[in-house]
Amino acid sequence: MEKLYTxxxxxxxxxxxxxxxxxxxxxxxxxxxxxxxxQGGATNPEQLFAAAWGPCYLGALGSVAKRExxxxxxxxxxxxxxxxxxxxxFVLSAELDVHIPxxxxxxxxxxxxxxxxxxxxxxxxxGNIETxxxxx
Length: 136
What we know:
This protein is α+β, with helices and mostly antiparallel strands. The protein has three helices and six strands; from the N terminus they run E-E-E-H-E-E-H-H-E.
């Protein structure tokens, strides 16, 4: 395996803390959402995870579609990452809602599933969090 890029982020203070990337592009507070008993008013780990997964997934979708000769340049994805309680444990779940204009729903679902198999974030979470991929 050849390492192409490494992102470095320092976090402090937990869910009510601060994050800063080594290049300074990220430098802000994080807060637990009100739905989880926090004060809200800032981003949270689930939003950041969803924000990272979406563009990576679209990159995988573009690669898969290019091999099949399909234009997905107008595709969008909504990534929903949920923080759940399962008995005494906490677990994540995700829903990826994929919209690919100009193709049938059946073809869109096929491309969405292939992209989910190819996306590095999807691979990292496979078998670890319940994920549903739906073409809309």
